[in-house]
Amino acid sequence: MVSDRTSSDHLIAELDHIGTGDREALRRLYEATSARLFGICVHILKDRELAEDALQEVYLKIWNRAGRYDRNRASPLTWLSVIARNTSLDLHRGVLRQPAGSADAIGALVDTDRIADIAMEEKQQHDRLFECLDELPQAENAAIAAAFLDGCTHSELASRQSVALGTMKSWIRRGLIRLRKCLGDD
Amino acid sequence: MTEPDWNSDEFDVLAGELAIGVLEGDARAEALRLQLSDARFAERVEAWQLRLGPLLSRIPETPAPASLWPAIERRLSDQTEQRPVSTLRRWQAATFVTGAAAALFAGLFFVRPSPEPVIVTRDVPRPVLVQAATARLGKADSGPSFAARYDPLADRLRIEADGVNAGERVPQLWVIPADGTPRSLGLISGSGSSQVAVPPALRAYLRPGSSLAVSLENTQGAPHTAPEGEIIATGTIFEI
Hints:
By secondary structure, chain A is mainly α. Helices cover 74% and strands 0% of the residues of chain A. Chain B folds into two domains: 1-58, no CATH class; 75-239, Immunoglobulin-like. Helices cover 30% and strands 22% of the residues of chain B. Chain B is built from six helices and eight strands; from the N terminus they run ααααααββββββββ. The radius of gyration of chain B is 18 Å and the shape is globular. Classes of the chains: A mainly alpha, B alpha+beta. The interface between A and B is large, with 82 and 68 residues. Chain A: Residues 127-179 form the RNA polymerase sigma factor 70 region 4 type domain. Chain A: Residues 29-93 form the RNA polymerase sigma-70 region domain.
């Protein structure tokens, strides 16, 4: 479902308002995006209470950084989602060093093709990334996605997949090089 | 200025590895140091995160509890007074720079003074003014502003912080001399001014060409010996 309030243009306008100190605009942005961003926090932290702490941090960061959002670098939802991901991982690393997420969840995520609530313009960026990921050998694709979505380290991924550490390192490395070439936006 | 490694796969892969979070131990510490000391590397890390960001849309939505917005609003009220809106507006204007120009500008910005110095030096002989502004253009992890003044007579560094949202963490100050290795100058306050007594061993580093940086660190074990948390500001030392 594509809804107006989560369209890129709409979110960019809200970020502009927030950048000038408009708290009502932040509330509207929260209404439109909090389920998406809370989903990310819950996925990474696997703990609702921690995820709630993380989400508070996320919107305070958005409040402080909205003026620096650059639409040429990423869609607003991508930018907001990366803030939620990084904030959750920071919190996670501060709490305990264990892989976030879970292997099962990742299997489900990688298999799904459904992308909810994305406007056309944003969907094109998404499609490009997913096409490039699909061109990677499956092992490289899965390792990069699991690392990014779960915050797993090299050795955690290696033990998850039961491969040697060196093998995992070269999967990631080769995957990143291929991915950048495919995206061609260096 | 020669930067032979700048376009190498090696450099970009390292940025990608840090961005997706696979590095651990010494490799991670080394990459974090690079992120702290090299704005272009930090730019690469962010580029990787934004590139892969669409993956996050595959995570299912979860409605947030109703009590969360009021909690956020309360915290906003606590910090609103200190918010440097005028500075943000300038930043907003600056973000119209696009594409390749933005990347170049980010590099230049590293040594560009912030628009509104917080401290004006008057009475100290040969003070060093550090404009550690909000780091790099358009970065997802750029944030608050800092200004620092070093008084070499007293060997004290005075830091003015503005708009820092430290949460449960604490800001830690670093000096990064030419060798690129951050040395801790200890914890500072996230708002208002802090005085830092500079250890004798680090005094020689506080000179033009070195950088100052602020990271947000977990309180447990702080101050840390190497930056582990998010880098929220970097700036180059220059003399006025």
